């Protein structure tokens, strides 16, 4: 049999006036294949678009969830911050109130001390004025002392002024009468039911003035002997009249109203001073009497304090209780501050972590890797899987830690 020759241009059959050849079938088949390829490529693109949309939706959902968590943590942090601010405000208000009360008490005490200081300064000014007035009256002191009655009144007034200025009312009596009928110039009551102290202000000054006015040594010696005799007689009178056993102290004071006379008596008439000491009579000047009055005042104050010792002890016990409570409250306040500081440190750590987490979320990077080269063997069956790998998203987190 002879082979049949086939040609694409040879018509296979007649379709109306148009002859149908084999070339037409080949062309139609090629067109059909191309159309199928185009449709497959469109489906692959649609699948890739769907996958990308799903990935973007999942990222948006994760981002929304993260934003919700951040908002919830921000609300919690805001609530804790508000509670902390309220607690700190209450504690600061309490401390401010206590500090204000303490400052008010200190201010009140300061004003009271200033008032007392002003009173003492007023007393000092008054004493200074008295000293200036006495300095002005020194010129007439000689004429005052020349008269016995005037001299006695002057010595009595000086002594009464010193005693009345140094002792409280009721601690002394002027011109008191003793059991033997004698009337000393002043009697000072002693504490603890002790006998009172007697003070005599009548100093024999006639012989002293005669001794100072003597023009010759012989007359000065005679005046000195007369002064010594008068002093001894007056000392014996004081010891005999005012030193009563069980009724008065065993010692009495002889007041000399002049510091210069007191110094000269101790310097030139030592025997008279020794005899006075043996008879328990002490010669005192205004300064020594003032010092003695201050000592007696201290004794009286000590006696009053001893009488009120139980009250003072009770106040001290209550003061110690208050101090103990104050120490306990201060320690509690210190513990509260320590806990508050710990909470603040933990809040700062959480805030720092949130800041770093936010930075990590902000640094998220969406990258599309390049498509690898396809071989001719993989074009058919591996086209869809390759397209899927091409459409995958790569998440890159930049960790700043």
From TrEMBL:
Family: Belongs to the RmuC family.
Top-rank lineage group of the source organism: Bacteria
Entries under InterPro entries matching the protein: DNA_recombination_RmuC
Function, in words: Involved in DNA recombination.
GO biological process, one term: DNA recombination
Basic and acidic residues: bias regions: 375-387
Bilayer-spanning residue ranges: 20-42, 281-300
UniProt KW keywords: Coiled coil, DNA recombination, Membrane, Transmembrane, Transmembrane helix
Name of protein: DNA recombination protein RmuC homolog
Any Pfam family: RmuC
Ranges for region Disordered: 361-391
């Amino acid at each position: 049999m002879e082979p049949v020759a086939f040609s694409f241009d040879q018509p296979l059959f007649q379709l109306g006036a148009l002859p149908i050849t084999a070339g037409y079938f080949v062309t139609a088949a090629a067109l059909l294949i191309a159309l199928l390829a185009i449709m497959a490529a469109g489906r692959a693109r649609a699948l890739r678009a769907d996958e990308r949309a799903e990935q973007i939706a999942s990222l948006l959902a994760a981002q929304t969830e993260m934003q919700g968590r951040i908002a919830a943590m921000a609300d919690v942090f805001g609530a804790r911050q508000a509670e902390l601010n309220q607690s700190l405000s209450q504690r600061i208000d309490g401390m401010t109130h206590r500090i204000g009360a303490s400052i008010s008490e200190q201010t009140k005490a300061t004003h009271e001390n200033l008032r007392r200081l002003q009173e003492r300064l007023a007393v000092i000014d008054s004493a200074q004025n008295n000293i200036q007035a006495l300095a002005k009256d020194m010129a007439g002191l000689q004429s005052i002392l020349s008269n016995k009655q005037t001299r006695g009144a002057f010595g009595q007034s000086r002594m009464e002024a010193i005693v009345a200025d140094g002792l409280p009312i009721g601690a002394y009596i002027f011109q008191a009468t003793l059991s033997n009928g004698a009337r000393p110039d002043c009697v000072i009551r002693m504490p603890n039911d002790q006998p009172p102290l007697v003070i005599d202000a009548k100093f024999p000054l006639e012989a002293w003035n005669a001794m100072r006015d003597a023009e010759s040594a012989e007359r000065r010696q005679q005046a000195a002997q007369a002064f010594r005799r008068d002093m001894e007689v007056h000392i014996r009178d004081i010891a005999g009249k005012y030193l009563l056993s069980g009724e008065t102290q065993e010692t009495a004071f002889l007041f000399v109203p002049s510091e210069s006379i007191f110094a000269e008596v101790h310097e030139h008439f030592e025997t008279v001073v020794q005899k006075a000491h043996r008879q328990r009579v002490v010669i005192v000047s205004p300064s020594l009497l003032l010092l003695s009055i201050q000592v007696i005042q201290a004794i009286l104050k000590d006696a009053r304090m001893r009488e009120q010792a139980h009250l003072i002890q009770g106040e001290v016990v209550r003061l110690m209780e208050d101090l103990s409570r104050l120490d306990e409250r201060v320690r509690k306040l210190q513990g509260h501050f320590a806990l508050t500081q710990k909470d603040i440190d933990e809040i700062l750590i959480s805030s720092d972590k949130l800041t770093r987490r936010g930075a990590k979320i902000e640094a998220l990077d969406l990258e599309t890797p390049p498509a690898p080269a396809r071989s001719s063997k993989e074009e058919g069956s591996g086209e869809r899987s390759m397209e899927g790998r091409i459409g995958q998203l790569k998440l890159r987190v930049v960790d700043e830690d």
